[in-house]
Amino acid sequence: xxxxxxxxxPRRLGTLWVVVAIIALAGCSGTLDDVLPGTGPLVxxxxxxxxxxxxxxxxxxxxxRDGRILAAAKPPNELGRAxxxxxxxxxxxxxxxxYDAIRSRPFTGTCPIAYDGQEVIFxxxxxxxxxxxxxxxxxxxxxxxxxxxTAAALSSVVDLPxxx
Length: 164
Hints:
This protein is an alpha+beta fold. The chain is built from 4 helices and 6 strands.
């Protein structure tokens, strides 16, 4: 009969190999953010266009997987935190969304930057890769669960439209 300490050894060795494999894969794919869930950005929102006193207006927010909302200005400044429930809903929506279906509805109007408005550009960091959706390229359905969840998660810092 084996002692309790010995029976755990193979499991610990197996866990060590999993960690080594993750680190090795991270070296192949770029960064640990691409391999380990819970690190790196989940959504980036970029606003551009419009007129500000110093020129064209721009702003960018990064919603990290741990719920931190950062201004993309250097150095990144933490502006707030997203609610845990909102983060859970958003993470599920980012993975479940059919991005090709969203991008299949081209924007046909005049981009708001033509009349002092702003374009909204989203980058969703899904397991399948970064999915870019720009409001001057795609007719965004603001009632789609992905955009509702994004607006809810960022609501403490950014006011995104939630209605068409």
